[in-house]
Amino acid sequence: MTKLAASAWPKADLASVGMPSSSVSLAELSTGDLAEAVHAIKNGHCYLDWRLFQFALSMFDHAQAVSKNVAVTQRSILDLEAQTALELQMSLDSTDHFARSLLDDAVCARDRLPAVFSTMRLGLIDRARFHRIVAETQLVRDDETMALIDQTLALQIMGLRGGVSSMSITKTGHMARRLVAEYDPDAEKLDRDRAKASRNVGFQALDGGMAQISITATAEDVRLVRQLLDAVIAGLCPEDPRTKAQARSDAAIALLQRTPFTCQCDSDGCTAQITDVELDARAARIVVHVLCDATTLDGGDQCGYLDGYGPISGDHVRQIAERDDSVIHQHDLNDLLEPEAQSDNDLDEAAVHRKGPRPDSPDECRADDPRPDPEIDENGAAASASDAGSDTQAADGVSPPRFLIAKTALPSDPYRPNLLTDLVARFLWGTCSIPGCERAAFACDLDHVAEFDNICPSNGGPTCICNLLPKCRFHHLMKTHLTGFLDDLWIDDDGRYHASVTTPGGITVELLAPNQWLFPQLADLRCRHQLAQQSATGSAASTVDQAPERSQTRTAAKHARRRAERKANYEQRAVGQARRQAAEEAAAWDDYEAKRAIGEPPF
Ligand SMILES: [Zn+2]
Ligand SMILES: [Zn+2]
Ligand SMILES: [Zn+2]
Description:
Layout: H1 31-67, H2 77-92, H3 96-111, H4 114-121, H5 127-137, H6 143-157, H7 169-183, H8 185-197, E1 201-205, E2 211-215, H9 219-233, H10 244-257, H11 276-283, E3 290-293, H12 294-297, E4 304-306, E5 310-312, H13 314-321, E6 326-331, E7 350-355, H14 362-365, H15 378-383, E8 409-410, E9 413-417, H16 419-429, E10 445-448, E11 468-471, H17 473-481, E12 486-491, E13 497-502, E14 508-512, H18 528-536, H19 540-545, H20 554-580, H21 582-597
Antiparallel strand pairs: 1-2, 3-4, 3-7, 4-5, 6-7, 8-9, 10-11, 12-13, 13-14
Bound molecules: zinc ion (3 copies).
């Protein structure tokens, strides 16, 4: 091979892999056709990455085979890696560092993550996502635990178990991190301790007479600082000429240099509110949300979720809970249920920690959200208990199930979700619900997917978990103003929450709620809108027959969690066997291919 060898790609017929034939003029293709071609390229990237790993491994094997014939002193594993990396470096035209990293990932794919590796072949993840998984799982030492994590991740990536079918690199990392934290808490702790020990401040010269400072600190501290900067610049008057990014930079420098941060408008009537007193008042209302199961606070391994960051281990949750500035609030999903308010005091299903006092106004803690904060109605959530009971009669005269998700809106304002509904809707999705957007859920608007009808609420979309999706301001505006942009939200028969987005070009992307693991009880609950919809389509009877009993207590909720875990373990066992038996493994992939073939959304 020489580097000047002609590329065969221009002559290859790529129509067989879903790309338009070279004889077709692109102008003749619709946006949908082009999107399919783009998607085929994405699948191809993943597949070629898979193939590249295999080639690299084969090169490595060859190097090992040859080394058996040479002197012992030359057989060190490092030499073999270096030799193989050299071949890769030359053929890829890459750096030595890139080639070695590629080979490391390939060896991991074979030895530690074979099931996840298979999903590259299916076009589901590329090398960047694989690399992120390698990094998140690198400290897992026990082979069996590693195999369990590998198989579970592969299932999640394939959307066969609660995973997201549309995955950013960040969300792929979240999936792996959560599994490591729950299956191997020691590895997670070690990883976190090492990471924490490496906190630092970096300085780098940039072009144009600029330089960069980067501060590495715990996720919760960085989250607080970020919100602090937003709280500072929120006080600028509308005439200030800077972008938000510029203003944040100026505010951070001013804070670090202990110089005043001022509005830069030339207006005589400047309305800036950035005196120390005003800044302190806003800073005191900053909140960083963490949600976890109550058992996690008692020492359990169940992960929590830090808004703006992702899953964090039980140990990490407890560290945050122990901070002086943490406040713990306990909530019970049963408070959403009809027909009656919970009467006992067993209200400790879930907990939210927050920093600082409860905000008086959302404009302070969610700078760009114009709506009043539902959290100020925290006590009202319980008080609204018996308000929504009168219209839960299912159609066809069938008695509704005894317990339904029904108490979701404020009795005083049906447009606004109550506190608990607000929390569930945000944490369930974790970020803006548009695939690929990582804006933190608490910095998003809660959007009524089916529009709310202000004049006659019963005609419009409900204020309920079944109809509320977090959307960042940008995507919220896009939905509102871009003709043909459509989103949807639905609950399947297993109680799993799905969303989809259709672009004006006709491309539909579907995903499962990435954080349903935080609310295993939801799988057993149905809301009255969902039941009404099912009865309208004729399937109400069976649903009502199987309607879940209300999980009365923490114990019952625990049972729900266990049921979910059992189901998950059953699947894990099934896949464990499959891994040992190649035929069964192949069947699992075939099943996935079959699902795709019968019209499951392709991405
Ligand atoms: Zn001003
Ligand atoms: Zn509903
Ligand atoms: Zn967004």
